[in-house]
Design goal:
Helix content is 44%, strand content 11%. By secondary structure, it is an alpha/beta fold. The protein has a single domain, classed as Aldolase class I (TIM Barrel).
């Protein structure tokens, strides 16, 4: 049943939240509901163990179990991308080996965090690790958390490394997007996707391949419709869909006072919608009752049932 990915990969690939019951126990029923919810919404793939999946707060045991269960539940219906980012070279490879055995289609790798690497070191790291990777690899630019950016020159060089097939950028830097697009102008086969959903549409309109958008956990149909309208350059459809995406972004993600409010709001909304648990891995915690009531009100204002 497994189908090979054709490149460039296109569409909406939600960075799946990791449903948890406690710090080291998956909400298995919630995971199944979440996967069915997103696939029935028309998404073009699923990405686990990214930033939205709280990968850095999960044990290796839990990452392995999540990979196994996700691949089983998806069962080849859409491509599965598995985040293998780690500060340890060997641990990234270990999870990639789990991913290939489970039937995943590709892996996603951000720069090792804690010690910031220079661009020559980062390129060597990619050259060394890709040789040993058992699956195609997407590089993941997330400088706010890794303290390292893939420079456009490094991205261009990485695109020539056999086995590296694409990039997800979450820098929220429009000038950087354009610089990378220009650097990749002769590589039509190299996937370039954007994380921030606020300008996914503009990105696709200017040649980008799609979005790895957190909101697609909640409202997959909305993001798929916006992507499709953008590909078709149907501006009459784009405008109201974009406004709805901005309503999600400026409300659900902004309850609370900390950098974790995006994750807390997203998980709380999924809990209110009856999809999965909103438990968050320590040191973070789910919203308490006042914030949860606010999320309930915001979902009602979104007329969220109409978006399902």
């Amino acid at each position: 049943m497994e189908k090979p990915i054709s490149y460039p990969l296109r569409g909406i690939i939600p960075p799946l939240v990791t449903p948890l019951l406690n710090n080291d126990t998956l909400d298995v029923e919630g995971l199944e509901r979440l996967i069915e919810h997103t696939i029935s919404g028309g998404v073009h793939g699923i990405f686990i163990l990214g930033t939205t999946g709280e990968f850095a707060g999960l044990s290796y045991k839990l990452r392995k179990e999540l990979t196994e269960r996700t691949c089983q539940l998806v069962n080849g219906r859409v491509p599965v991308l598995v985040g293998v980012t780690d500060s340890a070279f060997t641990e990234s490879l270990n999870l990639a080996k789990v991913a290939v055995v489970c039937g995943a289609d590709a892996v996603v790798l951000a720069p090792p965090f804690y010690f910031a690497s220079a661009q020559p070191e980062l390129l060597e790291y990619l050259q060394h690790i890709t040789v040993q990777m058992p699956l195609p690899l997407f590089i993941y630019n997330m400088p706010v958390h890794t303290k390292v950016i893939f420079s456009p020159e490094t991205v261009k060089a990485a695109a020539n490394i056999p086995g590296i097939v694409g990039m997800k950028d979450s820098s929220s830097n429009l000038a950087y997007f354009k610089q990378v697009q220009y650097a990749l102008r002769d590589r039509e086969d190299f996937t370039f996707m954007v994380g921030p959903e606020e300008f996914m549409s503009e990105f696709v309109l200017t040649g980008g391949h799609g979005g790895v958008n957190g909101g697609a956990n909640m409202f997959p149909k909305l993001y798929v419709e916006l992507y499709n309208a953008s590909v078709a350059r149907d501006f009459e459809k784009i405008t109201p869909l974009q406004q709805k995406v901005m309503q999600v972004s400026t409300t659900i993600y902004n309850v609370g006072h900390y950098g974790s409010s995006y994750m807390k709001g997203l998980k709380c909304a999924l809990s209110v919608m009856g999809i999965c648990s909103d438990f968050m891995a320590e040191p973070f915690h789910r919203f308490k009752e006042p914030e949860r009531l606010k999320i309930e009100q915001l979902l009602d204002q979104l007329n969220y049932k109409e978006l399902l």
